[in-house]
Amino acid sequence: MIVVVNRERRLERVLRWFDSSRQVASQSDAVDWVRIVPFLLLHVGMVSVFWVGFSSMAVAVAIGSYCIRMFAITAVYHRYFAHKSYSMGRKMQFGLAFLGATATQRGPLWWAAHHRAHHRHSDTTNDPHNASRSWWWVQVGWFLSKRHFAAPPNVPEWEKFPELVWLDRFDLFAPVCYALAIYVLGELLSGYGTSGWQMFVWGYVVSTVFLIHITSFVNSVCHKMGGRRFNTRDSSRNCWWVAILTFGEGWHNNHHRYAGSARQGFYWWEVDVSYYILRILRCFGLVENLRVVPEAVIKEGRR
Hints:
Structural class: mainly alpha
Radius of gyration: 20 Å
Strand content: under 5%
C-alpha cells in the first residue's frame, strides 16, 4: 500500500510539469526537485554545444531567439500583463502571450501575479524575490521553490479570458512547440551548414538559459548595483548594462517610481528597446494607448 501511494505521489508531481493547476499551495522555501527536472535538463543541455558544434547560422538564430523573446517578456509579460501600460486586441494579446510563454518562464498570469506581489511588498518577507535575501534566492531560488509554483490570485482581469487561463495552465505547451519549430528550421536549413539538433541547442537551449538568467538580473542586480534617481521606498536601482541586455528593464528605479508607464527609460539617453518596438507596433495599429510618464515625475528625476 505504501509503495502504491508513493508511486501515485511521484506521478502527481510529474504531472505538474504539464498542468500547473495541479500545483499545491505551500509555504516551504525548499526546492521542489521533481518539479524542476525540466529546468535542470535545460541547463545540463548547455554542454551539448560541444556535441552539435558551431555555425554562424545557429548562433544568429540563437541571438534572434533571445531578442524576440526578451521583448515578449519585458514588453508583454511585464509591461502589459503585470502593469497594463498599454492596450491591444484580443487576438494580438493571445499571440504575444504565447510568444512570451516560449521564454520558458511559466505562464502570463503566473508571471504577472508574482510581479505584482513584488511591487506591493518590495524588499519585505512577502516579496517573492526579496532582495535582502541571498543572491541565489533572488536570482533563481524563489523561482524553484515550492512556495512559488502556485500563483497568488491577483490577476482577475486576465482570468476572464479562457485562452489565457489555458495557456497559463499548460505553460509547457508553448516552449515545446517553439523548440520543435526551431528543430524543424534547422532541418530545413541543413544545406547552409547547420542541422536540426544544432539549431535546437543554440536556438532554444542556449538562448533560453541566457534569457532566464539575464531576466533575473533585474531582481538580483538592480536592487544591489546602480544609481537611485528617485527616493523610492524600496532598494531599486538603475543599472545601464542590465538595461541594455534586457531591452530597458534595467531602469528599475525609474520603474518603481512610476510602474504604470510603457516606457522605463524616462529620458532620451536611457536606452529602452522594448519601448521603441512598442512605438513601432503602435504605428501599425497593433497596440495603442501607450501610457507615458507624468511630467511631474520627469521633473522630479531631473532634480
